[in-house]
Amino acid sequence: MTAALTRVSEHRSFGGSVATYRHASEACGGEMRFGVFVPPQAATRKVPVLYYLAGLECTEETFLIKGGAQRVAAELGVMLVAPDTSPRGAGIPGETASWDFGVGAGFYVDATQAPWSSHYRMYSYVTRELPALVAEHLPALTNREGIFGHSMGGHGALICALKQPGRYRSVSAFAPICAPMQVPWGQKAFGGYLGPDQQAWRAWDASELVRTLRQPLPPLLVDQGTQDKFLTEQLRPELFQQACAAAGQPLTLRKQEGYNHGYYFVSTFMEDHLRHHAQALNA
């Protein structure tokens, strides 16, 4: 039996509804929140579910407010589930000291270093605890799952899929952190959550994981803006592209001329990503 859900808010949207829920989380050792768009088709049947992982400083509301996804998701009959980006209020010293580590920056890993390891277990939360809640309380076809995300959440979507090949029917990302071991954001997060042993970091780096992939994932879609100020220092999509090519993993990397890192970029190409997912989820 999973934890009970408490509905925090609910709003009518494109014939369906957007709601925010809170619950006690075993994985994260405290209260967690997530947002959901339930499409109108769910009034009469269960529907496929697409998980969205947001980026640094975001919450469970960011995607559903800024992503522009509900209209197309309603047309396609796909449920959208968006978890928060970290535990909040754990009381860990320094958890709010910087914007790119701690609160709002869980990096979708299972921390192994104290004191973070008692709360910052976002991989287990996203791949085990949250889907169990969705299965119990919402009209989701849990054998038809997809996953995507933006920036830190793009990293999260890629590693969740790469660590569980065969789990997700569709995968995509907007401006993901593709090689966290080799960029400052990833090095800071991994050092804090996983410790100094960089060999242990490889299990959480998409460009490393794809090299050891035993069975290909479904074709990946990645969009990257050419005017993204984080492109060369923090994101490094070319490293992931090279790793996919070496491993034989199908990847479409689209370079979107003139676009930057924010949600104007994400919302512009959201429909493409939703249709990419729906083609697999509704097959």
Strand content: 15-25%
Span of the ends, CA to CA: 31 Å
Global structural class: alpha/beta
Element order, helices and strands?
A: EEEEHHEHEHEHHHEHHEHH
Tell me the total number of β-strands.
Answer: 9
Query: What strand order characterises the main sheet?
Result: 1-2-3-5-4-6-7-8-9
Tell me, rounded to a whole number, the average pLDDT.
97
State the helical fraction: 25-40%
**Roughly how many Å is the radius of gyration?**
17 Å
- Helical run tally: 11
**What oligomeric assembly is this protein in?**
single chain
- The dominant shape is globular
Commentary on this structure:
With 283 residues, the protein is α/β, with parallel strands linked by helices. The chain is 33% helix and 24% strand. The chain contains eleven helices and nine strands. It has helices spanning 62-66, 70-76, 122-137, 152-163, 184-194, 198-201, 206-209, 231-235, 237-247, 263-268, 270-281, and strands spanning 6-13, 16-25, 30-38, 47-53, 79-83, 140-150, 170-174, 220-225, 251-256. Strands 1-2-3-5-4-6-7-8-9 form a nine-stranded mixed beta sheet, sandwiched between helices. A hairpin with a 4-residue loop joins β2 and β3. The chain is globular, with a radius of gyration of 17 Å.
